[in-house]
Amino acid sequence: MYEYPEPIEKLIEAFSKLPGIGPKTAQRLAFFVLSSPESYSEELGESVMGIKHKIKLCETCGNYTDQRECSVCRSQTRNQEIICVVENPKDVLALERTNEYKGLYHVLHGAISPIDGIGPEQLSIRALLKRLESGKVKEIIIATNSTIEGDTTALYLAKLITPLEIRVTRIAQGIPVGGDIDYADEITLSKAFLGRRDV
């Protein structure tokens, strides 16, 4: 049976590890890179390495940034009294696409999942509570995914934050159960924000 030369096989294998990329697509991508000018390969390699070396977590909210704080936390026009809590940085981008939300964010970097060994201490919950000490925040919007883990995390946060006399809301369930926020369209996310309710 014919096998590709080792460098091609390695590139196909690397692409196939990406989410949503099957063997055929990985093969097509590898041959695209192979047939492209060398400058493209260099640009692609530099971009991948740049992400690993230059992107870090925002010191305030935990979103991805190339500076000390992300653009949302640095903005003077955002509503400082509302924080939307999400599971992952990609959820911030999904919510920003709606143009409905004008407050701040806090990224947990996951959800409570005892079966996967993820408890509250593995998430950035302590950092969120520290942000609430200032007394400026009047509302926390919980925008975790509509999954068992997301719901568990939302309930846990509500129990921690409600005694602080801060309004705790959860985005409406316009997002399909079992679905991820970053796959929802802008209209669904807009309606979910507008229909949020107290937890």
If you had to describe this structure to a student in words, what would you say it looks like?
The protein is an alpha/beta fold and 199 residues long. The chain folds into two domains: 6-54, Helicase, Ruva Protein, domain 3 (Orthogonal Bundle); 64-198, 3-Layer(aba) Sandwich (Dna Topoisomerase Vi A Subunit, Chain: A, domain 2), CATH 3.40.1360. Helix content is 42%, strand content 14%. It has a five-stranded mixed sheet with strand order 4-3-5-6-7. The chain is elongated, with a radius of gyration of 20 Å. The protein starts with 5 loop residues before the first helix and ends with a strand. The model has no long low-confidence stretch (mean pLDDT 90).
Summary tags:
199 residues; alpha/beta; Helicase, Ruva Protein, domain 3; 5-stranded mixed β-sheet
Blueprint of the fold:
Blueprint: H1 6-16, H2 23-35, H3 38-54, E1 56-57, E2 64-65, H4 71-74, E3 79-86, H5 89-96, E4 103-107, H6 125-132, E5 139-142, H7 148-161, E6 167-170, H8 186-194, E7 197-198
Parallel strand pairs: 3-4, 3-5, 5-6
Antiparallel strand pairs: 1-2, 6-7
Helix pairs in contact: 1-2
What's the gist of this structure?
By secondary structure, the protein is an alpha/beta fold. The protein has helices at 6-16, 23-35, 38-54, 71-74, 89-96, 125-132, 148-161, 186-194; strands spanning 56-57, 64-65, 79-86, 103-107, 139-142, 167-170, 197-198.
Structural class: alpha/beta
**Regions with little confidence, pLDDT below 50 for 5+ residues:** none
Count structural domains.
2
- What is the spatial order of strands in the main beta sheet? 4-3-5-6-7
Order of helices and strands: HHHEEHEHEHEHEHE
Count of β-strands? 7
The count of helical stretches stands at 8
User: Mean pLDDT, nearest integer?
Assistant: 90
Terminal-residue CA separation: 60 Å
What Rg do the Cα atoms give? Answer: 20 Å
Main pleated-sheet profile: 5 strands, mixed
Q: What does the overall shape look like?
A: elongated
Please give the CATH architecture of the largest domain.
3-Layer(aba) Sandwich
How much β-strand is present in the residues?
A: 5-15%
Amount of helix = 40-55%
Looking at CATH, which topology of the largest domain would you report? Answer: Dna Topoisomerase Vi A Subunit, Chain: A, domain 2
Name of the top-level CATH class of the largest domain: Alpha Beta
